Amino acid sequence: EAQVTQNPRYLITVTGKKLTVTCSQNMNHEYMSWYRQDPGLGLRQIYYSMNVEVTDKGDVPEGYKVSRKEKRNFPLILESPSPNQTSLYFCASSLNWGVGEQFFGPGTRLTVL
Amino acid sequence: DQQVKQNSPSLSVQEGRISILNCDYTNSMFDYFLWYKKYPAEGPTFLISISSIKDKNEDGRFTVFLNKSAKHLSLHIVPSQPGDSAVYFCAASGTNDYKLSFGAGTTVTVRA
Predict the structure, then answer these.
(1) Nearest-CA distance from A2 to chain B in Å?
(2) Is the pLDDT score of B2 beyond 90?
(3) Arithmetic mean of pLDDT, A10-28
């Protein structure tokens, strides 16, 4: 089944404790992206990747890091999480930029205390 | 500052009637527009899209209209069904901008 998977689905952590949210897609998509969803703000793009080893900032990249060492994986790293990073996070992928719609993962609910 | 705005946070409509969702954008470089639908505890799923070279695109019960001069698009759902109850996000992008900008979403409730 074609899908985007994220782990964990739920995470409660404390300020400053490094964490990684994994994202994997099995559709051989080149474009991958991370979003956060907050009430009243919709989805905002954090980082995106056009292909392996090619990443760039979205609209809200502060406090986040990403890497794209393999085509299928695009982990989101929070080196020192803060309470304002409490949010619902979505990973998405598409065949290529401008080719077809983006497929979204099920989301990761992160709470930073 | 949000470049894509959905000014109606919610919409309630009776089953069988038309749902009209509106979206405004400020960036004149946007040339591709999409609507996504989201159920609770799931990721958004693609619904319909439109390129700026068109002013209308139809897919079954869903039609998207684009008015470039007004920087406005709308999604029509006819007839509305209970399964259409969800949050709908409008999104936009530009050809040379590899990012997707979303609106805040409109929650649609279809009443039986």
Answers:
(1) 13
(2) no
(3) 97
Name the DSSP letter for residue B30: -
Which chain A residues are Cβ-neighbours of B100 within 8 angstroms? 33, 45, 102
Kind and range of the H or E element at B72? strand B72-77
Nearest to B43 among A33, A50, A104 (CB): A104
**Considering only CB atoms, which chain A residues are within 8 Å of B46?**
101-103
**B87 pairs with which residues across the strands?**
B38, B107
Quick check: A98 pLDDT over 70? no
Task: Report which of A99, A107, A98 is spatially closest to residue A76, judged by C-alpha positions.
Answer: A107
What's the CA gap between A99 and A52, in Å, rounded? Answer: 17
- A56-72 pLDDT, tens digit each: 999 999 999 999 999 99
B46 and A CB contact within 8 Å: yes
Q: How many CB atoms lie within 10 A of CB B28?
A: 9
Q: Is the pLDDT score of A106 beyond 90?
A: yes
